[in-house]
Amino acid sequence: MKKIWFIGIFVLVLLSVGVFTKGFGAFGSEEVEIDLDEITEEAKWFEEEIKGVTVKFFAIRDGDDVKTAFDACDVCYRSKKGYSQEGDFMVCNNCGNKYAISGLGTKNKAGGGCWPGYLPSEVKGDKLVIKESDLEKGRYRFK
To answer: Dihedrals φ, ψ of 17, to 5°?
Structure first.
């Protein structure tokens, strides 16, 4: 009986630690929320501090869709030059490659070349939501 009591207390302690430290995914997936009104057909850049590193990304509206990407290429990220917008294209400020805004928001399917770093996002009501865990996955691009 004492063993069952001890196991019960142990489980409660673990759950408490998970809730307060946000160590369990269901209890603590932090998110960045951006008002959709801020997102237009002109790219807007954002920054979030993730474990001591400033992670940069942009969001842009393409019709009814909202596209997001890291402000760093899959290949050129070491240059730390990011992107600029030219009309309906995002342009790598390092190599000059252009990417149609309508095609953004996907992983680099060709692999190996310059491409705006994939950053998943989701529209929830009147907010654009990006998980901090997804920002953390691209953190290496900004160290």
So the answer is: -60, -45
What's the CATH number of domain 30-142, 2.60.40, 2.40.128, 1.25.40, 2.102.10? 2.102.10
Tell me how far apart the terminal alpha carbons of the chain are, to the nearest angstrom: 53
Structure tokens at 67: 């596209």
- CA-wise closest residue to 75 among 59, 87, 50, 92: 92
pLDDT tens-digit series, residues 1-39: 555 544 444 444 444 434 333 444 444 469 999 999 999
Place of tokens 């992983």: 107
Q: Which of 34, 56, 54, 57 is nearest to 122 (CA)?
A: 34
In this predicted model, what pLDDT tens digit does every residue of 105-141 receive, in sequence order? 888 766 667 889 999 999 999 999 999 999 999 999 9
Per-domain residue ranges for the chain?
Answer: 30-142
63: left (phi over 0), alpha (psi -120 to 50) or beta: left
121 and 132 in contact (C-beta within 8 Å)? no
CB 55 within 8 A of CB 64: no
H or E element at residue 98: strand 98-100
